[in-house]
Write a structure and sequence with these properties.
The protein has 8 helices and 11 strands. It is α+β, with helices and mostly antiparallel strands. The protein folds into 2 domains: 102 residues, no CATH class; 126 residues, 3-Layer(aba) Sandwich (Aminopeptidase). The protein is globular and about 50 Å long.
């Protein structure tokens, strides 16, 4: 049986697999790490994810990291704080990676008693066509305005194939008067649901749209017995606690 931390990591691994495949990228999967390489200069989707404290097949990993460096492809490294062993610390130091952020790993045991969505006039639909994807991209990219990452993400979504993404990932867009203002993403794997990309355009924040999207996602789970996992900022964790989520660990991100 997987621990709560392992549920978070395995769901993130599923997300990496799906979103790498959606742009015909390469996923390197080993017993103790996963490397997602989209061949696009985005550290949002190029990622090294640690799965255990032990670093094995180190040469294979270093070849993949050197590929990022030679091709000038930014990438991020995600390590559960419990897995941050001397092996990983040495690798991080060797490649001059710096801590960028820390996320709180959270879990809800099931969605059997999830309350009904309280509507703030947000019209939420699943992305199912090119128009919906463009709306999703508009909100997503707005959070990176003025940065090189925004240009990289523009390339990512230009190469993105919803057909390749598959049915385990469901993307949602929330609109006010046909204007896209919020996004949400639900990923299902064998053991859990994962919630990602609950984003609201800056000018529409503070109106409850993000919470409404979040509660909508909780109501989209088909297997109500499955746990739901997510990663939150220190500032945002209390929002999720109100929905019954509990802290189960910490993820450290290096760039």
């Amino acid at each position: 049986m997987k621990t709560s931390q392992q549920l978070v990591i395995s769901n993130l691994e599923e997300k990496l697999k799906l979103f790498t495949h959606a742009v015909s990228g390469e996923l390197i999967k080993e017993a103790n790490y996963v490397i997602a390489n989209t061949e696009i200069p985005t550290d949002t989707f190029n990622m090294l994810l640690a799965k255990s404290p032990t670093v094995r097949n180190e040469n294979h990993m270093k070849q993949a990291i050197n590929h990022f460096i030679v091709k000038k492809l930014p990438f991020s490294t995600w390590v559960d704080a419990h897995n941050l062993s001397n092996d990983w610390l040495q690798l991080i130091k060797e490649h001059n990676l710096k801590e960028a952020e820390r996320n709180i790993m959270m879990k809800l045991d099931h969605t059997l008693h999830t309350g009904q969505r309280i509507s703030n006039h947000l019209n939420i639909t699943q992305v199912s066509n090119k128009e919906g994807l463009l709306q999703y991209k508009e909100v997503f990219l707005s959070l990176f305005e003025g940065s090189p990452e925004r240009d990289a993400l523009e390339i990512y979504f230009r190469e993105f194939s919803q057909e390749k993404l598959g049915s385990n990932a469901r993307m949602y867009i929330g609109c006010i008067m046909e204007m896209p203002v919020a996004t949400g993403l639900l990923i299902e794997d064998n053991n859990s649901y994962g919630i990602y990309d609950v984003m609201t355009k800056e000018t529409f924040r503070g109106k409850g749209y993000g919470s409404e999207m979040f509660q909508f996602l909780l109501n989209q789970t088909i297997d109500k017995q499955k746990p739901v996992v997510l990663q939150a900022s220190e500032d945002g964790k209390n929002i999720y606690k109100r929905f019954g989520f509990k802290e189960v660990g910490e993820m450290i991100v290096f760039e």
